[in-house]
Amino acid sequence: MTITIAGIAGSLRRGSFNRMLLYAAAQLLPPDAELEVFDLLDRVPPFNEDWEADPAPLAVARLRALIADADGLLIATPEYNGSIPGQLKNALDWASRPYGAGALQDKPVAVISASPSPRGAAGAAADLRRILTNTGASVVGSGLAVPGAFGQFRRDGQLADPDLVRQLRTVTGDLIQAVGGSRAAA
User: Fold this and answer.
1) b vs e for 126-148, b when ≥16 Cβ sit within 10 Å of the residue's Cβ?
2) DSSP of the chain, one letter per residue?
3) Residue whose C-alpha is closest to residue 146's, from 169, 122, 128
4) Structural domain tally of the chain?
5) What CATH number corresponds to the domain at position 69?
6) pLDDT per residue over 75-106, tens digit each?
7) What is the predicted pLDDT for the residue at 47?
8) Which residue has the higher pLDDT, 184 or 136?
9) Structural domain that includes position 65
C-alpha cells in the first residue's frame, strides 16, 4: 500500500527555497511513498468561524481533504519577521477545525525550513512545531533548518550539501516510520 505524504510550502512564491526543499524531500522518499503538494495556499481565505462547518471556499475543502486523506504531512516554512508566514498559520487554523476533530488531529507531521539567514528559519520552525502541537498534530523529530539557502541548492533544485541530504533523509525516514506506527495503532 502506498504511503501518501501531504506537503505544504509556507511561501507563496513558486521558486521559493522551501518549495525546492519539499521537492528535494520527495526525491528521498522510499518507492512506496509519494508526496502530494498543496498548491492553493494563496487561495485560502482568512479563517472565519462562520464558514467552519461547511467551508464555502474550495481551497479550504481541498486543504482539509488532502491532509485528512494523507498518511502524514511535511511542512516547509520560511521565516518572516521571526516566525511563520501569516498565510501558513491561517491554513493551519482552517485545517485544525473543528476543534478536536480537524484534519491535523493525531496526524504525523515533520517540519523543515530554509532561509538565506544563518539559522535557516529555525525560529519559524520552532514556532510551527509549537502551533502544530497545539492543534493536536503529532510532531515528528526535530526537523531540518537549511541555512544560507542561496548557496544550498543545485540548478536542478536538489540540495548540494551531502550532509543536508543525509539530514533530510532522516527527517523523511522518521516521518515514514511515524506513519507506520500510526497505521498500526489505527
Assistant:
1) bbbbebbeebbbbbbbebbbbbe
2) --EEEEEEES---TT-HHHHHHHHHHHHS-TTEEEEEE--GGGPPPP-GGGSSS---HHHHHHHHHHHHSSEEEEEE--BTTB--HHHHHHHHHHTPSTTTSTTTT-EEEEEEE-SSTTTTHHHHHHHHHHHHHHT-EE-S--EEE-SGGGTB-TTSSBS-HHHHHHHHHHHHHHHHHHHHHHHH-
3) 122
4) 1
5) 3.40.50.360
6) 999 999 999 999 999 999 999 998 888 999 99
7) 94
8) 136
9) 3-185
Is the confidence at residue 141, as pLDDT, over 60?
Answer: yes
pLDDT digits (tens, 9 = 90+) for 3-43: 999 999 999 998 899 999 999 999 999 999 999 999 999 99
- Cell numbers representing residue 75 in the block: 511542512
